[in-house]
Amino acid sequence: MLSVQAPNHESGQVRDDIRLHRRQHGGRHGGGGLPRDNGAHSAGGVCRRCGEVLRGPGPVGGGGMTAITLFVHMKPVTQGSVSAFPVKRKNGTYGAVVTHAHKNELYSLRSTIEDEYRQAGGTLTDGAVHVKVRFLFIRPKSASPKKRPDMTVRPDVDKLCRTVLDALTGVAYKDDSQVVGITAIKEYGEEEGIEILIGGVDRE
User: How far apart are CA 3 and CA 156, in angstroms?
Assistant: First the structure.
């Protein structure tokens, strides 16, 4: 059984977090109303109005692997789009060179994720892994919270996940087939970045 629990947003620590947020930031929200939770229970609560994290990702652990949490202060980049260019080989035959769109940004992001994981004390495991990830983007001025409360536009969340999973291959796990569970969400926030939580799996 996965050792991942969805926090109850109506009780306990989450309730306290929301109340504290309301007291501290009520003036910014206008009228001091209770910030609305984004409903992503498995990834934790984020205030829709200001993007502040009200609750971090739920617990992930088990399998002899210490859960690692990191935040990468870079714009999320997808890995899905590729381009192919024909090239002529020395023997006269033709082949193709395949490159990723936004290649420089992609490789820089991958490298940063690897570095942040190691600096957080992460090590390589050969067991089952569960990954939680939150992708944060700056809301464009043309998309007001009323007009677009959720990030229902590109980039696609599955392509964003591919970047993170490939970056952690050979660093957190030997092969991405070890990833038995993924929880992911993309949303607007006050700053762009990627929050990642990696842990093992408990079985009863």
Answer: 27
